[in-house]
Design a protein that fits this description.
Layout lengths: L1 H9 L2 H5 L3 H23 L3 H29 L4 H28 L4 H22 L14 H13 L2 H11 L3 H14 L3 H13 L5 H25 L5 H21 L3 H15 L2 H11 L5 H15 L1 H13 L1 H6 L3 H10 L6
Helix pairs in contact: 1-4, 1-15, 3-4, 3-6, 4-15, 5-11, 5-14, 8-15, 9-14, 9-15, 9-18, 10-11, 11-13, 12-13, 12-18
């Protein structure tokens, strides 16, 4: 319910917010709602209030987080991949820090509500930092500084465009295979990302018959390996092109994922999981950067298209779950061996730029 209802509310944000001052107001307004939703979850005393807070969280996150990402892409138009790598690294740090935060709260005698209160405080500090930072014109982050005036002028023109023009840009982008490719790839790759992570502990306990403590360790190893892979990506991108990284990691995952499913023994399986997680860590930031690159000067369209694709991608966990119900979780996850092959095939259609 939060994914579908909240996702539908988030869908028009990119088109309506546009760029410039309106986008900044949307980011700050979304940040306020973002903090309030966390407080709503922490204080919820009924199922209806809890669901309502989670539904509101999606458009609030879209305004506060996704529009901030789009602004970064506009600010650094020549370094999309490098900036997205840093963005994803911040997310990986959060994925590792989140369980540690919950552990600290529980160890100090608090509960899950207290953890959400801490998150609300952290989100409020992030909002304050965003407010103090002030607006920044598109193109001001380019490495060489060339074309900054032209980029700023283009940003001003984009800010004055009516929302109907941006809506047409979204429809036009859907007719461009260069853009659709990256949207499809983002959802396909996520099957070995968040979707696989969501079923990993259950698979290890129910299919591999490992102890729950081992399954918890596997989740921690995966999060740590993703953090390591994201850190390495920042260095690698200064020497190797993003398409080369995507091809190499997809080829590696095509071998590593079946190896993880088939290798016997706890230690070898966890080792294979760690290498697989590090290899697939670059997929989201590089594919998202390519999506923005396919829509130069139209980051608002990219935000809306990402939201729409995310709604469709929400069927991924459902498909895996239904397959598991019919044939077993082992066979359902075995079907994901096609994911790195599909990533390789779709990337092969992209031109090296």
């Amino acid at each position: 319910m939060p994914l579908l209802a909240g996702g539908l509310l988030e869908l028009p944000l990119g088109v309506l917010a546009g760029q410039g001052r309106r986008r900044r107001l949307a980011i700050l307004g979304g940040g306020v709602v973002f903090v309030l939703t966390l407080l709503g979850v922490a204080s919820a005393r009924s199922f209806a209030v809890l669901v309502g807070a989670f539904v509101a969280f999606y458009p609030a996150s879209g305004a506060f987080v996704s529009l901030t990402q789009a602004e970064l892409m506009d600010t650094w138009p020549d370094r999309h991949a490098q900036v997205m790598a840093r963005w994803e690294l911040a997310g990986s740090i959060g994925a590792v820090a989140g369980p540690l935060l919950l552990t600290a709260v529980l160890a100090s005698g608090g509960g899950w509500r207290d953890a959400y209160l801490v998150l609300a405080v952290l989100a409020a500090l992030a909002w304050l930092g965003r407010w103090l930072r002030g607006p920044q014109a598109a193109g001001t982050g380019t490495v060489a500084g060339a074309g900054t005036d032209e980029a700023a002028d283009a940003s001003g023109e984009a800010e004055r465009l009516p929302w109907t023009v941006r809506a047409r840009e979204v429809l036009e982008a859907l007719q461009d295979w260069g853009t659709v490719r990256w949207l499809v790839l983002l959802q396909v790759a996520d099957l070995l990302g968040d979707v696989f992570t969501g079923f990993l502990a259950l698979y290890l306990v129910d299919v591999e018959h490992l102890r729950p403590a081992i399954a918890a360790l596997a989740i921690a190893i995966r999060a740590g390996a993703c953090l390591a892979g994201g850190s390495a990506l920042i260095v690698i991108l200064e020497r190797v092109g993003d398409l080369t990284v995507l091809r190499a990691t997809a080829a590696a995952a095509a071998v590593l994922y079946p190896g993880f499913l088939l290798v016997p023994g706890v230690a070898p399986k966890l080792a294979m999981l760690a290498v697989l997680s590090a290899a697939s860590a670059p997929w989201y930031p590089l594919l998202q950067a390519r999506l923005y690159g396919s829509l130069p000067g139209r980051s608002s369209a990219a935000v809306t298209l990402s939201s729409a694709a995310g709604l469709a991608g929400g069927l991924g966990p459902l498909a895996v779950g239904l397959t598991a119900q019919a044939f077993g979780l082992g066979w359902a996850l075995a079907g994901l061996v096609v994911v790195p092959l599909a990533v390789l095939a779709l990337i092969a259609t992209a031109r090296r730029t």
